[in-house]
Amino acid sequence: MTTLTISNLCKSFGDVDVLHDINLAVQSGEFVVLVGPSGCGKSTLLRLIAGLEDIIDGTIQIGERVINDVEADKRGIAMVFQSYALYPHMSVEQNIGFCLRVARQPSALIREKVQDVAQTLQIEQLLKRKPGELSGGQRQRVAIGRAIVRDPDVFLFDEPLSNLDAELRVQMRLELMKLHNRLKATMIYVTHDQVEALTMADKIVVMRDGVIEQEGTPIELFNNPCNKFVAGFIGTPKMNFLHGHITTVTEQSLHLELGEGVELEIPNRWRGHDAVGRGRKVCVGIRPNEVVEGESGVSTLRGTISVVEQLGRETLSHMVLPNKQYISVLENGQHFHEPGTPWTVSLKPEAIYLFDEHEQTIALTKEFA
Ligand SMILES: Nc1ncnc2c1ncn2[C@@H]1O[C@H](COP(=O)(O)OP(=O)(O)O)[C@@H](O)[C@H]1O
Ligand SMILES: [Mg+2]
């Protein structure tokens, strides 16, 4: 089994720094999902691991072995690209078996391995076709088959399902999870799909601007984001953020001014922190499902309903406050709020996050943590 250890990894293209001091340990058999906005360096990190880019600084190890200078095809790593990158003039069978032919494996063995992989991916009936004669989902299976057949220690997936329609994505997601359970291989998977990240990952790694912001299990990141960026990135619909400053601090509560006369009182669960003092700028975070209609508790906001999204099982309503800030409210069931009408909502006190002026999460004081 295979651990992957990345230490102090840096990468720049010319004078543009793309990755800064990346440290990441992937356990043997772990399914790690890398997420982050477009351009944050996810593909570059995968390409460095795969050996498709030169490492400028730092090391990558598989097990005990440093692989910085090992040729890509000798690393025991297979990568699946979003673009599939199949050879158009070869049949499915030839595409899947290509690397085995290059490695001069006996043809009977190649046939057997290709057959086996085709069976796993349920594409046996497609073996004689060319990529041009396949649907997007079928091509993606072939690309995955080409990775599996090499029996790599580590699989790298770069947004492999992004080009598929929604239904097929869900289906392929389940199949990839089954495949991971069966192969028990170490996998690093890049996606910008929230649901994919939360459902597939043993560990999620959130990146921004070439830096790892936080890593942890999906639930750890969802419950305890280290900063506003991670809080906003993990979970759909997105966490609400209300910006303001503290006007009054008591043992029991914090009074906030959110601008243009909008005030909010929240229970003081952050006692004793420097960042929670009179005049300090803060940001309140609350997930849409933790906001309830009506005037319960202290943290009440009044505004006007602006848009209502009927999701069938749930209703997502957006309310605009008098200071033009928005808050989204996710209710179970079907609610027919009328846009343009006044509305009152309350924040569930135990679900409120507080971020400081540097957008870092302010930890709850011990008694509430
Ligand atoms: N070969 C390259 N030459 C110059 N800049 C590159 C090259 N490859 C990637 N970049 C830059 O590196 C940054 C990270 O890119 P990438 O790793 O593809 O991001 P992601 O996959 O997270 O969207 C981007 O700003 C991109 O423009
Ligand atoms: Mg990319």
The largest sheet, given as strand count, sense and whether it forms a barrel, is: 6 strands, mixed
Tell me which CATH architecture of the largest domain applies here.
3-Layer(aba) Sandwich
Count of alpha/pi helices: 8
Helix % is 10-25%
Number of domains: 2
Q: Please tell me what the overall shape is.
A: elongated
Task: Write up what this structure looks like.
It comes from Pseudovibrio denitrificans. Residues 4-234 form the ABC transporter domain. It is a peripheral membrane protein. The longest helix has 18 residues, at 166-183. The chain folds into two domains: 4-224, 3-Layer(aba) Sandwich (Rossmann fold), CATH 3.40.50; 240-368, OB fold (Dihydrolipoamide Acetyltransferase, E2P) (Beta Barrel), CATH 2.40.50.140. It has a six-stranded mixed sheet, sandwiched between helices. It has 369 residues and is α+β, with helices and mostly antiparallel strands. It is built from eight helices and 20 strands. A hairpin with a 5-residue loop joins strand 17 and strand 18 (326-332). Helix content is 23%, strand content 33%. The structure holds adenosine-5'-diphosphate and magnesium ion. Magnesium ion (MG) binds next to helix 1. Adenosine-5'-diphosphate is lined by residues 13, 16, 18, 36, 38-44.
